[in-house]
Predict the structure.
Amino acid sequence: MRKMTVIKLISIVLMLFFLQACGANQQTAGDEKNNEQGKKTQPYTVTDDTGTEFTFEKAPERVVSLSPSVTEILFALGVDDKIVGVTNYDNYPEEVKEIEAVSDLVDINVERIIALNPDIVFIYLMRDESKLEAIKEAGIKVFAISDTFSFEEVYEDMRKIAKVMNVEESGEQLISKVKNEVKEIGEKLAGVKEKKRVYLEISPAPSLFTTGGSTFQNEILNTAGVENIFADINDWFAPSEEEIIRRNPEVIITTVKYTNDPVGEIKSRRGWGEIEAVKNNQVYQFDPDLMSRPGPRIAQAVEHTAKTIYPELFE
């Protein structure tokens, strides 16, 4: 009887120890992000893309993002609970639609932004900064991110935003995740012997607009195993219809979604019937946000492009 009592006592002690350990593990996992944000007790400094240094006593608690790309990065870093204002072009992820819109990418509701009392406002440098002076004068930090031309610059944006939000470890994890996704896609494309030639249309006729070779969109195409027919021209530009016809792309991708039937419109253009892409019914419409935002979904953009053009490699 005494032996049985001892065994029962030992069993109870072991069970209590196990439950305590499980509870501690759950608390550690749940508090991981909060611990990372609170780990710095000393002020830290981050420099934006204008060369302006910002010193933070603690991680920002209230954030306004005036760039959909930055917003997506903030969500991917797990600090979306800090966002109090976005633009009305922010549409990913779905939860962002619950956040108040304070800008339409052209006009900024300065009074509302100030009323929201953010610790920091993220902007892209292409904005008219004169509209932000009142925000700066209100003592709010305005952190500028410059236009992005490569995947490496996208990764640097992630790193910089993570540093501002005091979640640098999460930033490095995000960068590694995206890089690994891109690498895996590249491995599937190893069997591509001859890259297909692609024309990416950003704006339709009569105001045609496309990407040249020194943009992150060109890197999306190149990483997807295709060749941009205008890779020899720098930056974004307006090509002529005659030059597109002359270069004769095998695939045409349009990111236009504000016109009726953009694919049909391309196929019906005068003289375009002789283009290989049109003759072989290789004209596709892609999500403009996926293809134009330099953020955490660049790997998805690469994969969607590759799957569309080389579907047999992803079966």
Summary: The chain has two domains: 44-175, 192-314. Confidence is low (pLDDT under 50) at residues 1-31. The longest strand covers residues 196-203. Residues 192-314 form a domain with the Rossmann fold fold (CATH 3.40.50.1980).
